[in-house]
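User: structure tokens for this one?
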Amino acid sequence: MSQLNLMDHAPSTPGKQKPEKSPYINHRMRLHSSLSKLTIFSTFVVAFLIFLFLLSPPSATTPAPRRRTLGGNSFNSSATSWGGSDWEKRVSRSARRASPSSLAVLITGAAGFVGAHVSLALKRRGDGVLGLDNFNRYYDPNLKRARQRLLERAGVFIVEGDINDAALLRKLFDVVPFTHVAHLAAQAGVRYAMQNPSSYVHSNVAGFVNLLEACKTANPQPAVVWASSSSVYGLNSKVPFSEKDRTDQPASLYAATKKAGEEIAHSYNHIYGLSITGLRFFTVYGPWGRPDMAYFFFTKDILKGKQITVFEAPDGGMVARDFTYIDDVVKGFLGALDTAKKSTGSGGKKKEPAQLRVFNLGNTSPVPVSELVAILERLLKVKAKKKVVAMPRNGDVRFTHANISLASKELGYRPTTDLGTGLRKFVKWYLEFYPGSKKKSAWLQRL
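Assistant:
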């Protein structure tokens, strides 16, 4: 496999921004009632998820003090060791900053899709970067290992471990005084939650709490930027989705755990003075992406001549997504890191109010899934064998559309990559990364 450039991209068509329509409530009693209901709902969601986690079966084996497994998760990787002088030297070297003004960032989920891109972007500009990933088997771990090798060539060390390992996190914060934490580790996927619900609570709720516990006691406390999701908008029918819209109607357990994460972030900000920024991603795609995403497995199946299933709304209407190219998301993430204010706590105690933010990171241009398939057909020069079916009740929503006016104002976020341009870059990467793909040589000759 030839060495691939993770961040290579060219200028493209700007996204279209639509102004939001802010509702105006005339009666204070109605506002008080709505807020009370939202507070009760949010408390119930968090309590339910923690209860579900406590009921999940424990791991069959007890890990040794310095060997950690990814407890309770059915697709765990094998235990790995950490600690020792050589290990600490690797950790320190990876997190070393080019200058005093640079950042020192712990990136959870660094071998993941977004995590790998963010890690490389930060390292290239001189920031200290240390990765943390459990390399679970939710999707092909060989792809994660390939990302790991790419980051190692750039000087980024990924510690193999789990965010639920409190001892490991304490050790990392003892070795490196991180200025920021980029929290991208999560159990992803809407549909898989119906098969393995406890894995979502383990990662997205318990894991997030464990990480924030480590952050609150660290000295200095780092600023935290983490990946929420557009899924929190759930059954909200008002578009485009604004950060001010209601998020108390999750359509999936995945969405509920991300909503719980936002409430947990609020608590740790309020009690301990942690500076926390949540980013709601909208259908991120691109090179080195996740195989469980439609654009990825559509490409794979079209090339193999297999039938693909395309969903339509129950009433026959279109299903559309606000597809957002990875390079645009990375720019937004770096903007959030660069504008994050310092946490205000010390020794686990809050000294003054700290920054708490939530932003949408989307493309503002929803595209029907049928158009996604048409673009792939043109790029691959292969006609897809399509089976159009009604969208099942598995947690997916019909439509996503981001209002990014707040991110544009506060982060300077301006997506520039249209779906055609982004998919062309993805297909080029896919055919190079999977050398056995059909029609590879003919396609590459046309570039």
